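Researcher: Good morning. I'm working through a list of sequences from a screen, and I'd like to move beyond sequence-only analysis. For each chain I'm collecting a predicted structure so we can compare shapes side by side. This is the next one on the list. No need for commentary yet; just the structure.
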Amino acid sequence: MAADFEYKQMLLELDKSLKAEEFESLKFLCKDEVKKRERESVNRPTDLWEILETREKLGPNNLAFLKQIIKGSCNGRLDVLRVIENFERGIPLDSQRPVNSSSSVPTNQPYVQQPVFYNPVPNQHGQQPVIYNTAPSQYWKQPDHPRTVNVDKYMKEINFLMKNLGREWRFFMRTLGVTDGDMMSVEQDHPRSLRDQIYQCLVLWISNNGGQFDRGRIVAALRDSAVERYDLAGRIQDCDI
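Model: Good morning. Structure tokens for this chain:
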């Protein structure tokens, strides 16, 4: 339930962040998913979010299309994209507010987001937020580096992770070293299937790891404080899959 509430908060924050002309561009980019008559009746971004949810183009674990149209309509505004990315990372919305040197803010003044100044709030383990690498690796660009590798002998472990990882899967992949840029590329290629996203990221990691499925690194990543899937780590370590 908490995740659904945070997801709705994120959508409301996007609603407040978008300018009028950006919203019109956003509707235009949705013309393949939303009919013209429906678009004409959409008055706010939240109306559009609801339609996209009914089309299965938007959801708590299905944000690839949203990021794609936000990029296209907002000229790459990092403050808007960061609202989505911080939700994916589990960073509370309140911690994304800019640091204000004034001790008091008039209540009659609207909040204006200043995205470049963020207050680093420690997570529940007392650790400072991590700055993630958002640049895609060269894996996707090198023609002599196949996008898929032979992972048949690792399919038992891969299937186990595909079936059991949930929302924490991005933190798990980051711990393994998969970049946010690569994860975004995978999400764009497979926007409707979380299992396909996990599979492709694991194939990427195996390829970058010399074609090897390093069980020790998998176990360590599952036990990382950002993931905390000790149940899965124990089963993989004991080969109980």
